[in-house]
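Sample intake — Lipocalin family protein
Collected from: Mariniflexile jejuense
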Amino acid sequence: MKKLILLCFAIGLVSCGASKTVRVSKKVIKGDWVLNSITYNQAGTYNATLLNDAPKACFEGSTWQFVPNNNTGVYSINNASCASGERHFVFTIQEVDAETGLYDFLLKPTNEKHKSETNQGFRLKLAALSDTNMQWQQTISVSGSPLTINMNFIKQ
C-alpha cells in the first residue's frame, strides 16, 4: 500500500510540471530582446494601441527583458515622442501544439516591480521562437474582419 501511494504521488508530481518543450522555450526566451518591427497581415494604416499602453510607433525599438525562473519581465519604451519608461509584467507560456511548437503566451502587466498583477491580461500567440528571433501574433477584429498583428523581436 505504501508503494502504491508513493507511486501515485510520483506520477502526480511529474504530470504537474511543465512539458519539456515549454521548459526549453523558457530557456530560449530568457534574456534581453528588442521589438524591432510590428507588421500586419493586411495592407492598410491602423491606429492600434498595443497592450492598452501605446501605439505601434512607440513599441518599435522597445527593449524587453524576460526572467523565466519567476515568469516576470520588463519592457522599456525608448521613443522620445511617447510616454517612455519601464513597464513590468508577468508572463506564462502555455503549450498548444508540441508538434508545431506553437504556443499561447499570456502577458499580464503589473503595477510596479514585484507588485500585484492588474486585472488585465493579453493572450498572444508565440508563433516563432529561436535563439535569435521571436514572433508574437495577436488577432483582433477590425470592422468585423480579423486582423493579425505580428510583433517581431531580435535577441540582443
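Post-analysis note: The chain is about 20% helix and 50% strand.
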